From TrEMBL, chain A:
Membrane keyword on record: no
Residue intervals of the 4Fe-4S ferredoxin-type domain: 253-284
GO molecular function per UniProt: iron-sulfur cluster binding; metal ion binding
Top-rank taxon: Bacteria
Organism name: Pelotomaculum thermopropionicum (strain DSM 13744 / JCM 10971 / SI)
Gene3D superfamilies (UniProt xref): Alpha-helical ferredoxin
Region (Disordered): 297-320
Protein's name according to its UniProt entry: Predicted NADH:ubiquinone oxidoreductase, subunit RnfC
TrEMBL record, chain B:
GO function term, MF aspect, one: iron-sulfur cluster binding
Pfam families linked: Fer4_22
Protein's name in the database: 4Fe-4S ferredoxin-type domain-containing protein
PANTHER family tied to this protein: ANAEROBIC SULFITE REDUCTASE SUBUNIT A (PTHR40447)
Lineage: Bacteria, Bacillati, Bacillota, Clostridia, Eubacteriales
């Protein structure tokens, strides 16, 4: 893991020195052992801040749109799941391909920092992480810890489709096998079994505690509107009143708005401060798009059109 | 100071009674992962085995959405019906940092300009604090001369000491409360528990990982509005409102009128966040905080300077929620450290 960090620094240095890019967006050490933080490097002398370990959870592709109208090229470090977002942003015309250098890193899965932090004595420093296939060994200055992937990985990693980036100009790390830890739509299928009343009660409970902090929207790579419908005051489509009705409207509008474009990176789900399982909403749509239109996960290939953005005569017409 | 003892076995009965006599707000666990403060109907819903709730009890006094009045226009007169729905309230089980945060909110809503809605709730609320039994890696209340067993602001402070709670009676309100529910509060054994509490406090004091020194930070901000440092910090910010919504002292709100078109309507106020672009958007379209840089700077200036300037009390209590919840690891303790360095190098 650590040698990948070293390779990453060398690649970033080279790209910056050769003026192939003006900025590298990558991961840096966080303020807690099990966390990393996005870093923005524009000087080849600063590449030492870049790091790589199983705590690089963020999807950094989100930041590309901040630079779409700035001069110069941007390199971004991506995992497999994030890489789908690069394809999607380019397909959505949000960023030009020639503007981006994708530094792909193959990913053996990401650990859930909160679960890990609960096991590790606070305040210790990370020294090394080794991938043992089904577990990670985390070496710290206060000893060694072993974390089984199926118990400590992020939920999204348990159903990972693309441990290897689907697009990369520079590829680091050895190829990772696609592991079926869990059936991809198991959670959605379980929800589908419930009665309408049970489903309604389930989501009512989830949405009623929503804070409307909009982190799910702001972290989302395919949320790229200049002015979001939820920020619009005239007319006000969804009010700021925090109640079940408005909260439900917010989440359902958002889910439908990204339908066919959601790359299933699971960031909304990961960062929700009150643990609303938002990914289940998006996965339900993904599953339906798969069942109805045989549509792969958006962003899986650069040439993919959004399944809801094209018409073919073979489309089912069940609702007609 | 008056001190009492509650047997843990009796707590459910007390909570059930409180839920009948008061609007009782207490920590509630949802989906096993989230703890928040909610109005409860009885002891069964209360989860006291939490370290720090994900959402602070701020909303018990300052609800996220609040109707302030409704109006009816009849053609010749305008009738305004103020929302005066104030219940006698108990906030049960609030951690010391969260209780201190209420002391930071008080001068905002009950200072020079009194906010009737907050003031009415505040005056009718009994705060029963609960000492911590664990210090999280994100906690830094010690930086504000507080601690895991600090009773400041609580009418009563409970400390969990095995099969009993040690109860410190800190105010007159607390005293009347203990008298009213005398059967649950024993006097016997309080002295031994006082010692046990002191020991617990000492043990916990040694568990803070973050040693945050605020000295000089305000002075740096007093002298410097523009700092190149902010150019570095804001880039990673996603502009979401997590930090402000989980913060127990953030108190900005927005006001909305809703009319139905038939000469009736309602006015609401809702939590707002200085992290949102429309927070400072003016009617004419001008925005004095046009980018994330100005917005991020504002939040830290507010926490570390403006609140002190205005009210002479810190606008941060060291609960660490913003650190734990920030999706991109923007960490106020790191910012405090960096600002100190900036000051030393200036």
């Amino acid at each position: 893991m650590m040698d990948i960090a070293q390779q990453l620094r060398e690649q970033a240095k080279k790209l910056l020195e050769e003026k192939k890019v003006d900025l590298v967006i990558g991961f840096g050490e966080g303020t807690e052992l099990a966390r990393t933080t996005p870093v923005f490097v524009n000087n080849p002398e600063d590449v030492a801040v870049l790091t790589w370990n199983p705590f690089c959870a963020n999807n950094l592709v989100k930041y590309l749109t901040d630079y779409s109208h700035e001069p110069g090229k941007v390199a971004v470090v991506v995992k497999g799941c994030d890489s789908r977002a690069v394809n999607r942003l380019i397909a959505d015309n949000q960023i030009k391909k020639e503007k981006v250098v994708v530094i792909g890193v193959t990913c053996p899965g990401q650990l859930d920092w909160q679960k890990v932090a609960a096991k590790i004595s606070p305040g210790v420093r990370l020294k090394e992480v080794t991938d043992n296939g089904d577990s990670f060994t985390v070496k710290t200055d206060a000893g060694e810890y072993k974390f089984d992937k199926k118990d400590y990985m992020l939920r999204r990693c348990l159903v990972c489709e693309n441990p290897n980036p689907v697009v990369a100009d520079v590829l680091l790390g050895k190829e990772q096998p696609v592991k079926n830890y869990e059936e991809r739509f198991a959670e959605v299928k379980a929800l589908e079994q419930l009665s309408t009343e049970e489903k309604s009660a389930y989501w009512d409970k989830q949405f009623s505690r929503c804070l409307r902090c909009y982190a799910c929207r702001n972290v989302c790579t395919v949320c790229t509107c200049r002015e979001c419908v939820f920020d619009q005051m005239k007319p006000m489509w969804v009010s700021k009143r925090n109640n079940l009705s408005e909260n439900t409207a917010f989440h359902l509008i958002r889910a439908f708005h990204v339908a066919g474009r959601c790359v299933d990176c699971g960031e909304c789900d990961r960062i929700c401060p009150v643990d609303i399982p938002l990914r289940k909403l998006n996965q339900k749509i993904l599953k339906d798009l798969g069942d109805l239109f045989d549509a792969p996960t958006p962003g899986s290939r650069p040439d993919l059109v959004s399944p809801l953005g094209e018409f073919t005569t073979g489309d089912p017409e069940e609702f007609m | 100071m008056d001190a009492r003892v509650i047997n843990k076995g009796q707590l459910p009965e007390l909570l059930d009674r409180l839920a009948k006599d008061y609007a009782l707000f207490a920590p509630v666990r949802e989906e096993e992962t989230v703890t928040l403060f909610k109005k409860v109907a009885g002891a069964k819903e209360v989860a006291l085995d939490y370290t720090n709730s994900d959402v602070s009890p701020k909303g018990c006094l300052f609800p996220q959405t609040e109707k302030t009045f409704s109006y009816i226009y009849t053609g010749d007169s305008l009738q305004i019906n103020k929302n005066e729905d104030v219940q006698n309230t108990v906030i049960f089980g609030a951690r010391p940092c969260d209780v201190r945060s209420i002391l930071s909110l008080d001068p905002v809503f009950e200072g020079k300009f009194v906010d009737d809605y907050y003031a009415a709730r505040r005056q009718n609320t009994v705060i029963i604090g609960l000492s911590c039994n664990k210090v999280l890696s994100t906690c830094f209340c010690n930086a504000f001369n507080s601690g895991p067993c600090d009773g400041t602001g609580s009418d009563l402070l409970l400390t969990d000491l095995g099969d009993k709670y040690y109860v410190e009676v800190n105010t007159d309100k607390g005293k009347s409360f203990v008298e009213a529910y005398g059967q649950y509060f024993a006097s016997q054994g309080a002295e031994q528990l006082a010692k046990a509490k002191e020991e617990l406090a000492k043990t916990l004091e040694g568990q803070f990982i973050r040693q945050v020194d605020l000295g000089g930070v305000k002075e740096v901000l007093d002298e410097n509005f523009e700092l190149p440092y902010w150019d570095k910090v804001f880039k990673k910010c996603l502009g979401c409102g997590i930090c402000t919504y989980v913060c127990p002292t953030c108190h900005c709100f927005d006001i909305f009128d809703f009319t139905t078109g038939d000469f009736t309507g309602e006015r609401f106020r809702c939590w707002d966040s200085c992290m949102f672009p429309d927070f400072t958007l003016m009617a004419g379209g001008h925005n004095p905080r046009p980018t994330k840089k100005e917005r991020v700077r504002n939040r830290f200036m507010h926490k570390l300077k403006y609140h002190l300037d205005r009210y002479n009390i810190a606008g941060c209590v060291g609960c660490g929620r913003c650190i734990a919840k920030c999706p991109v690891n923007i960490d106020i303790t790191a910012i405090i450290k960096d600002l100190k360095e900036v000051g030393q190098n200036a």
